[in-house]
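The material for today's practical consists of a large collection of protein records. There is nothing in a record beyond a sequence line and a structure line. As an example, a complete record with its sequence and its structure tokens follows:
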Amino acid sequence: MSYKVLIVEDEPAIARVLDLKLKQIGIDTTLVTDGNVALDVIDKDNFDCILLDLILPGADGFTILEAIRKKSTSTKVIIMTNLGQSEDRVRVESLGITAYYVKSEVSISQLVNAVKQVLMT
């Protein structure tokens, strides 16, 4: 089975490595670096999992997550952000996320493993 993952990340190094590592394990990825582009892509396609940054050019991750939930309550969303404040975490958890990672506290391999785990369950 082929899985589709959307990566919404504006930091080029992180975005490229995540994209590469997920493709290496056979996951079909779409990479976007702008929140407004992410909203368009989400509107036109369905994904098994979305890796979502919260701070983005264009629409922010909170707005994107709200749009995802209006379309589907079952899409798995993994937040990867520099925002470590509890109020940000509570806000996205209330919208039904699968996991929340602070970038400075997680490795790329941990994020890739989180995506694999989400897709295999």
In short: Residues 4-120 form a domain with the Rossmann fold fold (CATH 3.40.50.2300). The two ends are 13 Å apart (CA to CA). Strands lie at 4-8, 28-32, 49-52, 76-81, 99-102.
